[in-house]
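Supplementary Note 3. Input sequence used for the single-chain structure prediction.
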Amino acid sequence: MKQPFEQAVTRHGEAVLRVCRAVLGPGPDADDAWSETFLAALRSWPDLPEDTNVQAWLVRVARRKAIDITRARARHAIPTDDLPERVSAVGSPGADEYEVWATVAALPERQRLAVAYHYLGGLPHAETAELIGGSTDAVRRAAADGIRRLRQTYHTDEHTKGASR
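The predicted structure, written as discrete structure tokens, is reproduced below.
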């Protein structure tokens, strides 16, 4: 790969972080998946073919790292007495990130993953279908349903806030 690795981190880092947060939720696990993604990418960078779609490749690596962290969660106890680490603001859509990420996390799994990989990760529906399984049309439908549900949630919230003033 002739492009410097630092440029790839700068150009695609936020998209990878958005995918990690959409899959794992906001917090240290998503930040860890982001770090692990770029550590693994750095190791493979010199051997990457010239015509590689770097963003799609990084999103796939991020997906695998998120799965690794999800599996690790199931094997380890979660401490509750400690305060949570502060979440990075990089790649957050707006100041109230917890509400956004909680709403995305509340979507059904296929819709959440389709939204994460397609809209937040920038992958085409065909590549998203390869990642989560199913046909391109089914993934397109799941992504559209997820976006519709998010719009309904925020549209309802806007009317509720306006009515209470």
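The chain has a mean pLDDT of 83. The longest helix spans residues 136-163.
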